[in-house]
Predict the structure.
Amino acid sequence: MRWNDRHAQNIATLGHLCGVSPGYWDNLGNRHETSLDTYQAFLSSMGVPWAEPERLEEEIRRRRRQPWERLVQPVTVVHKNSARGRLVVTLASDTPGLPSNWQIQGEIQNRNGETLIWENRTEGTAVLAVRPRGRGFRSRLALPLPAGLEWGYYDLKLQVRGTGPEETGATLLIVAPDRAYLPPCLAGGERLWGLNLPLYALRRPGNWGLGDFTDLKETMSWAGELGAAFVGVNPLHPLMPEAPADPSPYSPATRRFTNFLYLDLERVPELAHCPTAQAFLASPAFEAAKARLQAADLIDYAEIYRLKRQVLPWLYETFLNQHGGPERPLTPRGEELARFVKSGGDSLRKFAHFLALAKYWGKGDWRRWPAPYQQPDSPAVADFVREHRQKVGLHLYEQWLASSQLADVQDQARQKELPFTLYQDLALGTAPGGFDTWANPGLFALGAAIGAPPDAFNPRGQNWGLPPIIPQQFRESAYRLFIETLRANCPPGGMLRLDHIMGLFRLFWIPAGQEGSAGTYVYYPARDLLSILALESQRNRTLIIGEDLGTVAPHVRRQLARTGIFSYRVFYFERDRNQHFLPPENYPRQALATVTTHDLPTLAGFWEGRDIALKERLHLYAHDRDAAADRAARDQDKKMLAATLSQRGLLPPSFLAEEALSRPCPQEVRFGVLEYLSQSEAALLELRLEEMLGLTEPQNLPGTTKEHPNWRRKFPLTLSQLRQHTGITDLTAQLNRYRGREEKK
């Protein structure tokens, strides 16, 4: 099929109406046009008809008419700080302009059930546009909303009476602030630093071979002693159920709940009243397993999953006997669980259904279940829930325990007077066979995946295997999933980092099973999503950080800055046109500075070229010359890095010698870079524990799954050993000269 065919041109037109970009510029300045095959693949994944010419043309007409046929759009966003919000409606009129003899009445109901009756005639109404329709017109009007609406979500129902037929409609009215939350300490000019670490990598004699919430609570105490302002962790989202093979926290089953593996089961109150669990934990077999898991350098997720899944049902049975179930609580503790389940609503209950079904069928991916169970609201699922109430209740219980232990962590941060309760990370998406895709039929494009376009680092592009949300369905659903996800991850009084925040503007879609070179961008309603983000940020007093690395259009960073979202600045990439490292004074104030990320080499690994050697050994280079080019570039980077630190007095001139540059990364270089960043204008500095310890191996190597132990590597020291590490103590004391809370102690 040629592009000059009418049918092919119509496919492209329909693709544009669905948000598909006609092409894009890569970060090397090359233009990539979207192919006909890509348009077809994306339309199919969205469930949009394109194969039959007549249906295709009707679909184009329908989508063009739709904004004029509806009284009101599914979502209306207004800003509290503007003079007065306006509601845009499109209604039938007998004349072009304001209709005669018309009246609009609305019921505005907030989430507390309070209702405001609002009537509007012509006062303050503006005509935005008019279009002929049949013998009359469709007029688009802007109506002034009632004054005094506070930030929040409102269900607005409309009824219009006039000379034409009565029209009704409904919209989710979102009254949002202009900017995200900025804590008073940063608004007052303070510059702070904090720790960042993968929770799963922490060692402690009491855990089961994987860092848990007790470890995190102890880390909060340690951070307070050091003068840190926050502790950041990897995403805490649940992995795919049933002994997950992929431990990546960035490919979870859902982003709305918590990974139960982080539970410290020995802190659960029911253990004291459960002889079965006590006997198991005291058995030689368990003690041997625990010792083996603790001693291992790599995490055995499957074994830890098996052990915790074995103990939890015993604890829940004890809870039921003592406190009753969520439907009939018998004690104050039972009532706590009942309140948690009620507040979690339909989403929490469905998540418990999902986990119970995964256990029953022995498959974590719902696409492998029998067909009657692949729809969350099917009669088969309802029958299953009735027959397996205790199995469903177990998962409600474990989420409650996780929520409680995580709240204890945040309480510890407050007790130690850290300015932030917790610094959480939000993954970009979820696994294709996970809970979010099961619970939201039709919302995700399961025939496509999110990724990144080809660049110098990845000539074939990156395919992350995460199904994208369909933009139009997203808006039709009133962004419910996005709102719930933010609420689940915004720690009150804390910080939230959004991985790949450019996804609020556009995502790089790739047809299923293909490389990144076959993909293109699909656009999203960024204004609406940023407004919701600002609202949830203000409601929870949560500072928002946007991971804005990679191919970022200039207007995206400007819009993020206007919304009060902090930029994420990585030392490796902060350079001028000549590739020299930017001086600390050139870092933006509204930013978090860091040396590296979970997807990049550690500083010691960068200095020693361990990432290049790993990619070479695993055959990740397309050509041998690419590895040689990377090594030559790295040698230049090391020289510039040493010269930059030396010029600021952070390294002696002797480090500029070739002999010094060829040695393993010394502590002076690592600590020099951290001190360099601590002098920056960025309001926040993130110290990753890997940099403080001089580790060379990355937590994740992009482009690998089983070839490298991604997300499995533990720290070499226990928490108690870390607290006694004089190098870390000396470093943080030095950093407190430039930023921190030392003077407040």
In short: The CA atoms of residues 622 and 691 lie 30 Å apart. The chain has a mean pLDDT of 93.
